[in-house]
Description:
Blueprint: E1 6-12, H1 16-27, E2 36-43, H2 47-58, E3 63-67, H3 73-83
Parallel strand pairs: 1-2, 2-3
Amino acid sequence: MTEPLVCVVVCVHNALADVRRCLASVMASDYPSERLRMVIVDDGSNRETERFLQDFAASGSAKLIRHGTARGYTLSANEGIKAR
């Protein structure tokens, strides 16, 4: 039986230390990587967090959506769900 496709949406606004722990936790999962998708929505984070997320996404680990200014959690979460 094939495992179901799982999409993890992570909404981010700064809090880089927490973001690092969150993404590391998702990546450490023993769920089959070919059945796991991650979408990160950066909701207007500062430059340090923005750069980290760009590098993380560039490694092929996630799709990144970036808002230049904060739009709020609900809009970000909905956008991430639609982007899966």
